[in-house]
From TrEMBL:
UniProt protein name: Secreted protein
Annotated region described as Disordered, given as residue ranges: 1-25
Low complexity compositional bias, start-end: 10-20
Organism name: gut metagenome
Length: 62
């Protein structure tokens, strides 16, 4: 039980740590294979994600 918990804890922080700094990247990668022909849809998704992330800290500042 103790041996199983050790690797689990080591793998757990590695996953969120990598996704934490680039959360919008995951959405882009998921949208790429889903609709590669829809360039407009991908651009819109990226713009919306960027706007949301940029709007969050800006709204908290004032």
């Amino acid at each position: 039980m103790r041996s199983m918990f050790f690797p689990s804890m080591s793998t757990r922080p590695t996953l969120p740590s990598r996704l934490s700094p680039s959360p919008p990247r995951r959405a882009v990668v998921k949208a790429l294979p889903r609709s590669p022909s829809n360039s407009a849809t991908l651009a819109r998704l990226v713009a919306t994600t960027f706007s949301m992330y940029c709007s969050r800290p800006t709204k908290r500042l004032p």
